[in-house]
Amino acid sequence: MSSGSIISPYGGELKLSLVDEARAAELKAASQDWPSHTLDAAGEAELELLLNGAYSPLSGYMSQADYETVIDHSELADGTYWPEPVSLSLSAETADALSAGGQLVLRDPELVILAIVNVTDIWQVGDEWRVGGSLEGLQLPQHYDNAELRLTPAQVRAKLGDKETVAFQSATPLSAWQTEQLETVSGLLLLANIDVSDPAMDCYALARCYQHSAATTNSELCLLNSSGQSAELMAIVARNYGSSTWLAHTDNPLAEDAAERIGIKIGQIDSDPSALPDWREREYPEAIEREIHQAFPPKSSQGLTVFCTGLSGSGKSTIARVLLSKLQEKGGRRVTLLDGDHVRQTLSSELTFSKEHRNLNILRIGYVASEITNHGGIALCAPIAPYAEVRDSVRATVEATGGGFVLVHVATTLEECEARDRKGLYAKARAGIIPEFTGISDPYEEPENAEVVLTTAGKTPEECAQEVMLYLEGEGYFG
Questions:
Q1: CA nearest 151: which of 188, 186, 191, 108?
Q2: Mean predicted confidence (pLDDT) in 72-83
Q3: Measured distance CA(233)–CA(58) in Å, rounded
């Protein structure tokens, strides 16, 4: 403990890993030929907590010895309690370019250098390679939103002086019950997590919710990018931010033995009667309710992608065109048709029909569909899309916008498609003129997760489209 009321950092002092300007310039000049690794959002969030002292006493990524003792005993090699590993995962190619005693450059997605790892350990865990080593940070990850709320432990401690604080950590908006309880707590520090591992989370809306809560509870607010850390690790962060007490709650409880080893007290608050598996269904103060409703509108106001997949000649393009007309009749959203042939002539005109290029074509369609969905429109897609992995990737890209994704399998049989063969493609494939043709010389992986399966035999395109419309209405996509 310090001489005042505020608790000392975990391990005794804040371990800051940011270098001065002279050293940063030296590292930039020297790092031109060093191996490089680009961090994703979760990696950036973890790096920031290492660089700014929130993960003290860590000053870098764990060594293999620390990693293994944490896995086995929740302790660093020196016996310090630590609940989960903090190491950097790399591709085999990047790991092969490294050696102990060397350096690794860490960059953000725009390739800005954030830090240098002075490598001490490289080892394999399953299919992954991991690296340990101390950090020299050139700069913290850049935040263009709410910069004044993204405070470091040192900044919060400077604001608090000797004031004793109580930490409450949340990764979701504070419910009406939580707000009422916290209004009675003095010296409250709200550690508000922006969970970058949740693709459906509207980070900006969540930050606004936290600001409403901070004003209502008269608390000090600190926004932290995170990726679903445990209560035990967040309690260490809370202590490093100057809190001597952790307010437990049902979303992220802290075990008493862990609190004792961390050296933080557990505060008692009543159980939340509104705690639900889906936090969006809880009761919230009016201002937060408005934010949540705007960030997570009902399906009838969401963007949507309807992705029709099937063999060449299955009728998916015709069904998609009928759907286009039916959706435009209903109105309420702009509708865009991304037909496979048309996309091939425009967005993907330079691509061949190799498997790699076919996959790239589908990913491009998925990206455009996700942008349409993100802006509240409806994207109708009608490519062959024969491979499940790529279809699943498109689904993930679209769903990350918070909109809907409906996979429609136009399950016309190969025999029927080949009998139609309006373009003569099957005949050319049988003659060997077209290599790698789906259904003939290349597989079509039938979807196992389609929301709608259309058996087209004996049905008109209008009847098939109506089946899709009935599904969309039943799921609430139209008011």
A1: 191
A2: 96
A3: 12
Domain residues for 100? 21-137
- Concatenate the DSSP letters of all residues of 271-337 into one string: --TT--SSGGGS---HHHHHHHHHHS--GGGS-EEEEEE--TTSSHHHHHHHHHHHHHHH-SS-EEE
In a domain, 8, yes or no: no
How sure is the predictor about 274, in pLDDT bands with cuts at 50, 70 and 90?
Answer: low
Tokens of 36: 């490089």
**pTM of the predicted protein model:** 0.76
449 and 354 part of one domain:
yes
Q: Strand order in 452-454's β-sheet?
A: 335-339, 378-382, 304-309, 404-410, 452-454
Please give the tally of structural domains in the chain: 3
CATH number for 61: 3.10.400.10
> Rg of the chain's alpha carbons, rounded to an integer?
27
284 and 303 assigned to the same domain: no
Residue 97 has pLDDT above 60, yes or no: yes
Q: With the CA atoms of 389, 369, 227 and 274 taken in that order, what torsion angle do they form, in degrees rounded to the nearest 10?
A: -110
- Looking at the fold, whether 158 and 43 belong to one and the same domain comes out as no
Inside any domain, residue 366: yes
Whether pLDDT at 441 is above 90: no
Task: Return the DSSP state at 81.
Answer: B
List C-alpha distances in Å: 313 to 218, 317, 340, 387.
64, 9, 12, 17
Answer yes or no: do 316 and 440 share one domain.
yes
pLDDT at residue number 2? 40
Are 304 and 413 in a shared domain? yes
Residue 280's pLDDT band, with cuts at 50, 70 and 90, is: confident
Size of the chain, expressed as the number of residues it contains: 479
Going by C-alpha positions, the residue among 236, 210, 213, 212 that lies closest to residue 223 is 210
Does residue 451 register a pLDDT over 60?
yes
- Percent of the chain, pLDDT > 90? 69
